[in-house]
Amino acid sequence: MPDRLRRRFLAGTASFAAATLAGCLGGDDDSEPVSADPIALTDGQECDVCGMLIADHYGPAGQLYYADGKPDDRDGPARFDSIAELLVYHRERRSRGWELRAAFVTDYSSVDYELLEREGTTYISTHANAAAFADATTLEFVVDSGIEGAMGEDIVPFSDREDAEGFVDEHGGNLRTWDELRDADA
Q1: Is 98 buried (19+), middle (13-18) or exposed (0-12) by CB count in 10 A?
Q2: pTM of the full predicted structure?
Q3: Which of 5, 32, 95, 167 is 20 to 30 A off residue 75, Cα-Cα?
Q4: In Å, how far from its chain's centre is CA 117?
Q5: CA distance 54 to 81
């Protein structure tokens, strides 16, 4: 092989190897982002707002994935033990320019939930396994029902509008969309 062809071949091979290695090490800015799928919050994960153990408290849980690997202190989503805390956290991050990739919350249409009475207060059960989460941007949210979760009166999400309307008929409250909640005054 002539020297000129050999140099081109070696240069091409070196460029290919460097690009491949950079992609494997995550140095390629055009690489695919880490998957944004719901994870189980049942193994001692703490809420990113209050620090409480998510699985140990009543009510819906949530997860937020942001672009650029945020939050950058760990792999995976920001985690919450209430929808109210998730919304406060998200509004603050939006004001900083963080771009939301995915939002997941407990879907009470997909779980066998319980309402528990304790000293005159009604609490809704928590469901923090991965299969219990659904895309928050597609759900109906019951607000002002008086049903409590981890941080007091909670916001209860449903994927089935009839389930949400039935919950309102039985417990009171109003329906809201993700966009309405996301854009509401804090």
Answers
A1: middle
A2: 0.80
A3: 95
A4: 28
A5: 5
Closest CA to 117 of 145, 143, 148, 141: 148
Let me know: does 64 contact 100? Beta carbons within 8 Å.
yes
Sheet with 140-143, strands from edge to edge, namely 156-158, 140-143, 174-177
The values of phi and psi at residue 37, to 5°, are -110, 150
Beta carbons within 8 Å of 125's beta carbon, 6+ residues apart? 58, 111, 113, 114, 115, 116
Strand order from edge to edge, sheet including 115-118: 115-118, 121-124, 148-149, 152-153
Half-sphere exposure of 114 (CA within 13 A, CB side): 6
> Hey, which residues does 149 pair with through a beta bridge?
152
Closest of 112, 148, 155 to residue 131, by C-alpha:
112
Neighbours of 128 (CB within 10 A): 25
Identify which of 116, 121, 124 has the alpha carbon closest to the alpha carbon of residue 154: 124
3-state secondary structure of 186: coil
DSSP codes of every residue in 27-45: --TTSPPPP-------SSP
Type of residue numbered 129: N
Q: How far apart are CA 55 and CA 61, in angstroms?
A: 8
